[in-house]
C-alpha cells in the first residue's frame, strides 16, 4: 500500500517507530549536518550583537538570537544559526567550556523538537521508576546511632511499634554515618516510635528520633 493513491492523496505506509527511535535517527543524521547552535550560561549583559560578534569568528551566520522573558530580560541562553555545518561544528568545539566574563559557556548542537520530547520522556520515566521503587509510608529519622547498628539491628529495635517497610542505616566506606531512616506504614505507628525511642540508649548512645515531614521525601 505504500505509495498508493487514495482520494487523490499518496499514502505512506511504513514500520511503526517509537518516538525515542525517531529521535535517535534525527540525532545521528543531524550531528553530521547541523548548523544551529545552542548557547547558554552567559551574563545578563549579553545581547544579539555581542553574541554575533563572539560567534562570527567561526563563519557567516544566518541568525543570532538571545532569548528574553516578557520584561525583556535575558534568560541566559540563545541560538546561533550558521550558513555551513563546518562553521557550526568549529564554534562548538572551540567555545564550549570557554569562560566569558566569569561564566563558563555551554555550546552545543541545538536539539530538534522530537529530541527534546524524547529526552523529557526519558527523564519522566526515570523519575516514575524512582518514585515507584520507594516504599510508601511515614519516615522517621534517627541520629546518634551506635557504630554497631546496621539495617537489621535498626529494624529490630523499632519493629515492636508497627509494620516497617524499610529500615536503612546510612553508610560511608562500609561504616555507619551515625544516622538512619525507618519507614512505618502509618502515622500513628511512626508517632509512637518517636515518643518511645527518642532519648532511649541503644548500644552505647542515646537516640535522637524525629518524625519525617511527608511521604516519599527520603
Give a brief description.
With 218 residues, the chain is an alpha+beta fold. The chain is 33% helix and 31% strand.
Strand content: 25-35%
Calculate the mean pLDDT score and round it.
86
> CA-to-CA gap between the ends?
54 Å
Low-confidence stretches: 214-218
Order of helices and strands: EEHEHEEHEEEHEHEEHEEE
Overall 3D shape? elongated
- Main sheet record: 4 strands, antiparallel
Strand order of the largest sheet: 4-5-3-8
The residue fraction in helices comes out at 25-40%
Work out the helix count: 6
Strand count: 14
Rounded radius of gyration (Å): 28 Å
Protein model, in words:
- By secondary structure, the protein is an alpha+beta fold.
- 33% of the residues lie in helices and 31% in strands.
- The protein has helices spanning 19-31, 48-55, 85-95, 113-133, 151-158, 187-197; strands at 5-6, 9-10, 36-40, 61-68, 74-82, 99-100, 103-104, 106-109, 138-143, 164-172, 175-184, 201-202, 205-206, 208-211.
- The protein has a four-stranded antiparallel beta sheet, covered by helices on one side. Strands 10-11-9-14 form a four-stranded antiparallel beta sheet, covered by helices on one side. Strands 1-2 form a two-stranded antiparallel ribbon.
- α1 (19-31) crosses α4.
- The model is unreliable at 214-218 (pLDDT under 50).
- It holds the Pfam family RRM_1.
- Keywords: Repeat, RNA-binding.
- Residues 35-112, 138-214 form the RRM domain.
- This is Poly(A) binding protein, cytoplasmic 5.
List key phrases describing it:
218 residues; alpha+beta; four-stranded antiparallel sheet; disordered C terminus; RBD_domain_sf; repeat; Nucleotide-bd_a/b_plait_sf
